[in-house]
Write a structure and sequence with these properties.
single chain; mainly alpha; Arc Repressor Mutant, subunit A; two-stranded antiparallel ribbon; 4 helices; 61% helix; Regulatory protein, gntR family; DNA-binding; DNA-binding transcription factor activity; WH-like_DNA-bd_sf
Length: 127
């Protein structure tokens, strides 16, 4: 039995999971996303959390709400990027941002070490 308590996902995490599923082709153009209430119950979150996740995907242009029917993966117009391509591009961008963040963290540490070395040398020459 798992001794750790299962943590419920937040809206950002739910949106990321759905975005990845769109990128993988699990949900294609005109596919309906899970109904908000049932999905919220399945995930153990509030309906508002799921609605917020869907709103994020709508803001990104990946899905559209259809009044009284649900939330669907957008079917792109001719010449427009597909939701799958857009979701994959967003996933690629997340990977690149993580790489750049790691590089920046490394750079900050290198600058700190350099400042410490320069400070030590300046202290030695001033003594």
């Amino acid at each position: 039995m798992d001794s750790q308590t299962k943590r419920t996902p937040n809206a950002r995490e739910i949106a990321a999971k759905l975005r990845d599923e769109i990128a993988a082709g699990t949900f294609g153009p005109n596919d309906r996303l899970p109904g908000g209430r049932a999905y919220a119950k399945k995930l153990g979150v509030s309906l508002m959390t799921v609605q917020s996740a869907y709103a994020q995907l709508r803001d990104e242009g990946l899905v559209e709400g259809r009044t009284g029917s649900g939330t669907y993966v957008r079917d792109p117009a001719a010449g427009e990027q597909s939701p799958r391509e857009a979701a994959q591009n967003l996933a690629d961008l997340r990977v690149e941002v993580a790489r750049v963040s790691a590089d920046l963290s490394d750079l900050v540490e290198r600058v700190k070490r350099l400042e410490e070395t320069v400070g030590s040398l300046a202290g030695e020459s001033g003594a």
